[in-house]
Each structure stands twice: as C-alpha cells, then as structure tokens.
Amino acid sequence: MHFAYYNTVMSRNLYKEKLSEKLDDTYDKSNTIMYDILKQKQSVAIRNAAKLLSTYSPPNPVKDNPSTTVHLLVKLMNKFRK
Predict the structure, then answer these.
(1) Any idea where the domains of the chain sit in the sequence?
(2) pLDDT tens-digit series, residues 2-41
(3) HSE-up of residue 76 (Cα within 13 Å, Cβ side)
C-alpha cells in the first residue's frame, strides 16, 4: 500500500517481491532503516488502505481478503507524535 493501491490477494512471497522491486533492493522487514524508508510513503499507504477498507460493506477484516486496518492504528498513533 505504500507504493500502489492493491485490491487483489497477494501471498507474502509476492509482496516481498513487489516491495523489493519498488525499493530497488531486497526487502527485509528486519532492516533497521526500513521504517524510515517506508515512513516517507506513509500518507500514500494510509490513503490506499482506507480506499481498500471502504470497498467492503460492511468491512470484516477477519474475512475480507485483502484487508488491513493498520492505517487506523497508525493514524491514532500519529496524533500523539510531536
């Protein structure tokens, strides 16, 4: 969601491959700078995740696939920054 809107099911291996392509480097979630890299794309990720969630009526993140609600947590946490 940080780089593009996806509304199709994607395996973990495929999303790692897609992220590696976008990053021009092998994606490794344990990379100590990965947060800083993806933080720059946070607003895009939030917008895309909200768009995806809005396609379900009513949303049921446990069953909807693909689905994410991480953006709701991130938006809440961002209110406490600064």
Answers:
(1) 12-78
(2) 999 999 999 999 999 999 999 999 999 999 999 999 999 9
(3) 5
